[in-house]
Amino acid sequence: MGTVTDYEKMYDYAAAAIRRVLGPRARIGPGNFCRYCTVAANTSGWQGASYRPNSHEASYWAGVHELMEHFARGTNWATGAVGSPVDFLTLSNYGQYGGAPTNKMGYQPSATAASGVLLNQFRTQLGAGFEHATLELHEFGAWVNRHWRVSMEPGAFGAAWTLANWQAALASGISRAFHWGFEDSGLPGMSILYSSVSHPRCYLDLSLELSIYLLCSTAEF
Predict the structure, then answer these.
(1) What confidence tens digit (pLDDT) does each residue in 183-206 have?
(2) Is 30 a residue whose pLDDT tops 50?
(3) Which of helix, strand or coil describes residue 62?
(4) Do 43 and 94 share a domain, yes or no?
(5) Is the pLDDT of residue 26 over 70?
(6) What is the distance between the alpha carbons of residues 206 and 190, in angstroms, rounded to a whole number?
(7) Is 29 helix (H, G, I), strand (E, B) or coil?
(8) CB 165 within 8 A of CB 110
(9) 101 shares its domain with 134
(10) Cα distances (angstroms) measured from residue 99 to each of 36, 37, 39, 53, 148
């Protein structure tokens, strides 16, 4: 894994190339940050030097905060100007987050609400000029069941979980959630929920303010 500075350079040069080819209206943002998963080497700067794995300390996000400072007030590596373009901020968000199986947040929608709080903190740190940046989940799902086995939103329970977490996302300012996928055989909860509220296409407009884009296959419906 590279350092925070390595990422800044990659981002700025990639953003400049995208805007050069696709035009100034192309939406650009950093990759989705993983909540409490990869622990980087101490020399990379992504976590604080005192960070303890799986402790959920604020120092886990030290590198991301440094990255926000670069985006807002740093010198762009590609252009030499101040700042970098940011049109969206993202996290991955799964139902199993919160620590070991015996001490996890599990399926609580509060885990999704916490993602919204964190993303809002990142956007606030960016400051003036970045109010337009949307808050999004670029990996979303339950992922594991209460027995700690991989299970993508199983059955009716999964449908209820998905709907409750969509509501939590909307209330916390998250505007888009990209589903991780439909790997289930049979009838996953997402299909149960979707078939009951919308036309069977891979798009669901939950409200005028929240659109959930599903990366899926219509074969599941």
Answers:
(1) 444 455 666 665 554 444 433 343
(2) yes
(3) helix
(4) no
(5) yes
(6) 14
(7) coil
(8) no
(9) yes
(10) 8, 10, 14, 10, 12
